[in-house]
Amino acid sequence: MCRWLAYSGTPIRLEDLLYRPRYSLIDQSQHSREGVETTNGDGVGVGWYPVDAAGEPALFRAVGPAWSDVNLRELAHATSSPLFLAHIRASTGTPVQQSNCHPFRFQNWLWVHNGSIREFARLKRDLVLAVDPELYPSMAGSTDSEVMFHLAITYGLRDRPVAAVERMAGLIESVAHRHGVPDPLQMTVGTTDGDRIWTFRYSSEGRSRSLYFSTDMTALRALHPELDTLRRLSEETRLIVSEPLGEMEGAWQPVPESSYGIIQQGDDELGRFAPAGP
Amino acid sequence: MCRWLAYSGTPIRLEDLLYRPRYSLIDQSQHSREGVETTNGDGVGVGWYPVDAAGEPALFRAVGPAWSDVNLRELAHATSSPLFLAHIRASTGTPVQQSNCHPFRFQNWLWVHNGSIREFARLKRDLVLAVDPELYPSMAGSTDSEVMFHLAITYGLRDRPVAAVERMAGLIESVAHRHGVPDPLQMTVGTTDGDRIWTFRYSSEGRSRSLYFSTDMTALRALHPELDTLRRLSEETRLIVSEPLGEMEGAWQPVPESSYGIIQQGDDELGRFAPAGP
Amino acid sequence: MCRWLAYSGTPIRLEDLLYRPRYSLIDQSQHSREGVETTNGDGVGVGWYPVDAAGEPALFRAVGPAWSDVNLRELAHATSSPLFLAHIRASTGTPVQQSNCHPFRFQNWLWVHNGSIREFARLKRDLVLAVDPELYPSMAGSTDSEVMFHLAITYGLRDRPVAAVERMAGLIESVAHRHGVPDPLQMTVGTTDGDRIWTFRYSSEGRSRSLYFSTDMTALRALHPELDTLRRLSEETRLIVSEPLGEMEGAWQPVPESSYGIIQQGDDELGRFAPAGP
Amino acid sequence: MCRWLAYSGTPIRLEDLLYRPRYSLIDQSQHSREGVETTNGDGVGVGWYPVDAAGEPALFRAVGPAWSDVNLRELAHATSSPLFLAHIRASTGTPVQQSNCHPFRFQNWLWVHNGSIREFARLKRDLVLAVDPELYPSMAGSTDSEVMFHLAITYGLRDRPVAAVERMAGLIESVAHRHGVPDPLQMTVGTTDGDRIWTFRYSSEGRSRSLYFSTDMTALRALHPELDTLRRLSEETRLIVSEPLGEMEGAWQPVPESSYGIIQQGDDELGRFAPAGP
User: Fold this and answer.
1) Is A277 part of a structural domain of the chain?
2) Which of A208, B63, D106, D215 is 20 to 30 A removed from D158 (C-alpha atoms)?
3) Any B CB within 8 A of D30 CB
4) Structural domain harbouring C202
5) Is B41 close to D65, i.e. CB distance below 8 A?
């Protein structure tokens, strides 16, 4: 299992969210409180969109624990971004290597995942076969998360994200059913095209990993007078996190079971998520 | 491209071959003389069978350059073995990560490869589909070399090694032909079950990477009086190398183009290698 | 803070102690129960003496977390030893790098340490100046632990180990006093010449990190019928650990506060430890 | 020995100099043409000042070879800077670890070095003792280069850089003389406070490693019409390199033996360098 964070809003230094808050994501790499594992030390990654530019996001991914990664600390200090995803990894069996670190990137899209596909080794071949052969060469690692991403792209992530992820989930459940694997899917997912962020919370068994979002920047500011950064943030600014940063009680709302959310200009969206048949 | 070495015979400290000779394998990681690349700094690995034991060989594989790997130096000093394969990697495009380092292992078998499959990214899906689905989960990395190994196992490496590798080569050429990729295969391969060593030198274009074997321990000893180790070696002891160690002129014989060799108790074998149709 | 283990007795596969027991040392890298930190993910090391040989021990040291180190697992499976030290690191501020991983080695000696010197950065220069200038070049890393080792060698570790460590502790306390640093030393130490093991438990404040030893192999065997390995172990076999492996209640005895122990042929020794004035 | 590059001028993407030119610095990590070693694969680093900010520069330093460092490639694409130093390392004996990678940083200063102090292990203690005790804790690695930097700071680098480096060189030669080490110093150095760049070329034996600077942006543009980037560069823009990038014949001028240069607003400076007595 893993922990992740997505940010959208006023450009902010990465360190203001990755390092400064109490129970920051980097703290969670050593002391997760709501994770299945307390330690998330099998790699770290951040993908960010530049302040002034369109196009592909940049990636930093490393195999060591986040808490001791000196380059990440430097980067987080030197880099501001209006939109980024960060992830700390606890491997569920696949190797600890850079190509298995999140976020995964395809063109202008990023993808992070917490959870797993049960008995992935047994199901993997059938799942990979369902990926568009044109996309096959762009899978560089060996995780379930990267296969999920490429399945979602295969099913139209770039045009209809929610429907694509629902088909991806449906395929996994149907392949697992064929192999006699119960309750195969456990996921919270964050994905973005550099403009909007889509987030998903779902598990086959209906007991999904935790996921929270911050709806109201005013409340957040009131609760965190010590975080100077928050004062400068626009009303549109949003955070999505695997587990709350700091003690910002009242500022965090759980994403409901089996649902999706969209962070975007104007009103955000929250809807029901259900795997789709093939 | 890469460099590799296989040893079979009287148990010997790994360092006696990996570090001590002039132009040792570790030297070749920085200064290869016959390789396509002078630098082979994208990982290193050694797989060895214990002196007193049967069963699975042990592996050490690391992503840094061989020349600065302190653990490898310690291990090579502390470990003796009657049969081992060592490999230094120069990536042809796939990530520098442990799961892409040679040797690859399956049960009691080891496999090292120098060369590449041309346009592997394009051909990979079709090749992977030809791997026995039961074997699919044991592919942990992303190299052409590991897929070749699993194709060979699929085609009976454990029972009829030469025929299995010939079918593997035939499949690669036939898949490549279908995709319009000319001269797809370039390989020298070493593989062992812990008892015998099979080696292959082949390329679709008939201009294969260099490969040498040492046939005569008496000659080797005469040429290397400075290597104490050689004096203790049995007549059966053999070495196969991508490029000669030391200046042992006269002691190295090139493996002929398009051929295989078998190092074994009693007479060794050398035969003609030809890819087999499906 | 860190965790460590020392073993002396019948040659045993490293994995039998590093991986197999419940709450093994490798488990403790993720879930220490008695450590100051629950996570010890800043490196791992093992130093072992060969079964059949005298002379310098071999080292394996790596910067990643022990729990995901594939090479360590292979090595621990392939290697047996009658005497070895293993260590998992939680940095107290110095960089996560191989030269800071324990054990440290000097000639035939090994050294592991759990604890720290308070405000080491401020005290380091004075401590390093007290190291024998001949020994200065052999300090390759930047930890307090390595400086402690070289101070002990300076003060005669190779001839009178207990007295040398007492002078080392005395120097640290005296230098710290001069700089106004209270309660500077916190340590459990294991050191060996390949024949005997000396162990120390001490802290300036009299509240030292945990340390246990196993005195009675008969009792240990009785308590662990599931560990086949134990049946083969001689009566002389001993273990020293930062925290108990498994649930071997009754089999572990705490090393008393401010004391040293010597594991050796014949009767072991236990004595009072007190820092010595300069 | 190593290779390095310093850039000052119109903000430029790091990749435009680190990756794009023929014989770029990253190419030189595998195929140096003028270096003592053809391979510089023992680490890489870049220190850059942000486009819009004053203060401390950011660092990225990694232990693997530059040519396969995916994070460096991402960073170089995402980052623009008006002033940066980059370095690829070939160790002269000290460990391959992040704390030994250049540039070294102290407050707003950066430092890169190509060369070595002969028999550094023997001289190190005396040199370290000459470092201001206040600065001692900020030495984190074990290289001669970092000690040279801290000696220069001790001798006033921040106020009178040329005089400080001359005293540093003088001290090294005098300490070496005392130990009977001939011709101890070999160096090209680049150092900057974020405003100006000082560069030094010197060796005790008068045969220093190569160093070049680009004096005339107009000429450079004329010679490199293929490099779009050059068209946008101000007349003040300057490059200093261990060996020329691309084939820009006529555009590169060797820094004379035993001299220093200063890149700054207005006229640059070039002067004679001579070690100063204590």
Assistant:
1) no
2) D215
3) yes
4) 2-272
5) yes
